[in-house]
Write a structure and sequence with these properties.
With 434 residues, the chain is α+β, with helices and mostly antiparallel strands. Among the domains are: 149 residues, Beta-Lactamase, CATH 3.30.450; 144 residues, 2-Layer Sandwich (Heat Shock Protein 90). 54% of the residues lie in helices and 16% in strands. The strands form three sheets. The protein has a five-stranded mixed beta sheet, with helices on one face. A hairpin with a 3-residue loop joins strand 9 and strand 10. Helix 7 packs across helix 8 and helix 8 packs antiparallel against helix 10. The longest helix is centred in the first third of the chain and has 52 residues.
Length: 434
């Protein structure tokens, strides 16, 4: 039997689920205990008290039948038992009981079993019991206090159970909240690190939580060392390559124009590859985050690319608001997407959509696009799909989409590649959470 439908009604937060785990057993226990107590204890007590009251009523009925001979004795019994007795001309009544008066069911049942003369029982409130009886000589109406037939203040037990149940729930929730706080801090630190930010974190709490926290810190330190070593290595390699490239440029400049054209093109290609490697080596963990106007920021990046000779423009901006991002890394990602768009197409357009929860930067081109089965491969470092795409401005290095995807992941976002329905080429969406 599948219980997957329960997931639709389960809370998603850790605190809410912990509260459910605490409160649900307490409520079920109280309901079960209350039911058993009311059905057994109060029912038994009410039945015994009703039986005793029925014996007293039976005595009154016997004296009332012989009231002419035992008038004085009847008066003493009524006064001693605090019972009111009337002799109406006829009986015109019906059984009455409040809908929540469950002990009244037991009272009626016991009285009917013990009093054959009983016609109707009225329990209009919790204070008076009124009995309508048909005696051998005349009808009778007997009234007495309800407290003689059922336990008084029976609600006090339920009130006490609810009060202490609520109190124990608060105590348990406070303790559980103290235990869950280290888990929440660990989740906050992990989420921040996934978005490229390092927040102070110290493992606390139970042994298992401390172990998970220490494992997270070790993982974070290893990742930071890896990025640092990668940056140093590529920076060192690029620095070592710049010196011979400079010498090559000086040597080529001394050649004739016809002889150095192809060599200049090769040197520029090598320079461009080194710059791409450096961009790939830089990580968002080293950039400072700042709060920027998203629409204004993207517009400035597009205008800068247009001034550099790229055929790109802003198509549409939806919404407004500020976002906290690394401007250097995000600018690099947008420029790479625009560069790819104008490299493999003739024209590119950029759209921005800002909502309460996300920022989406869309770059579309009119090129051949990327087949759906190759898009996952296209975002990998050094992936080059030239056989599948036309090239207007020379071959690429294979790092443009990879850099954009890394920047998106560092901000807790994602890079999505789709077909552009409007321009017919590739549609690249950079999506960041706000």
């Amino acid at each position: 039997m599948s219980f997957r439908w329960l997931k639709l009604y389960m809370p998603r937060g850790l605190y809410a689920r912990a509260a459910l785990i605490i409160v649900l057993p307490i409520v079920l226990l109280q309901v079960a205990v209350s039911f058993q107590l009311i059905s057994r204890h109060f029912e038994g007590v009410t039945e015994q008290m009703s039986f005793a009251a029925a014996r007293e009523v039976q005595l009154v009925i016997e004296l009332a039948e012989a009231r002419h001979e035992k008038a004085d004795e009847l008066e003493r019994v009524l006064e001693g038992l605090d019972i009111d007795l009337r002799f109406p001309n006829r009986i015109d009544a019906k059984d009455t009981r409040l809908w929540y008066d469950f002990s009244g069911i037991v009272i009626m049942r016991t009285l009917r079993e013990e009093l054959p003369e009983l016609q109707y029982v009225q329990l209009r409130d919790d204070r008076i019991v009124r009995l309508f009886l048909q005696g051998s000589n005349a009808p009778m109406v007997i009234e007495f206090d309800r407290r003689r037939m059922s336990a008084s203040n029976s609600h006090q037990l339920i009130v006490t159970m609810v009060f202490f149940g609520f109190l124990l729930t608060l105590v348990a929730y406070a303790y559980m909240r103290n235990q869950l706080r280290p888990i929440k801090k660990l989740a906050t630190a992990a989420e921040a690190f996934g978005r490229g930010r390092v927040v102070p974190y110290s493992p606390r709490g139970a042994l298992e939580v401390r172990a998970a926290g220490n494992a997270f810190l070790n993982m974070r330190n290893r990742i930071e060392r890896f990025f640092e070593q990668r940056t140093l290595m590529l920076s060192g390699v690029s620095h070592d390559l710049r010196t011979p490239l400079t010498r090559m440029k000086l040597s080529i400049s001394m050649l004739d124009a016809d002889e150095r054209e192809e060599l200049d093109r090769d040197v520029e290609e090598m320079q461009r590859m080194i710059d791409a490697f450096l961009d790939f080596a830089r990580t968002d963990f080293e950039d400072e985050r700042s709060e920027l106007d998203a629409a204004k920021f993207v517009t400035e990046v597009v205008d800068g690319c247009a001034r550099a000779g790229q055929d790109v423009k802003v198509h549409k901006i939806e919404g407004d608001g500020n976002v906290t991002i690394s401007p250097v890394s995000v600018r690099r990602a947008i420029e790479n997407l625009i560069g790819n768009a104008v490299r493999y197409g003739n024209h590119a357009e950029v759209s921005v959509r800002i909502t309460e929860k996300s920022l989406r930067i869309r770059v579309e081109d009119d090129g051949p696009g990327i087949p759906a089965d190759q898009r996952e491969e296209a975002v990998k470092p050094f992936a080059r799909l030239e056989p599948a795409r036309n090239q207007n401005k020379g071959p690429g290095v294979g790092l443009g989409l990879s850099i954009a995807a890394d920047v998106a992941r560092a901000h807790g976002g994602v890079l999505r590649l789709r077909d552009s329905e409007r321009l017919g080429g590739l549609r690249a969406d950079l999506v960041f959470g706000r």
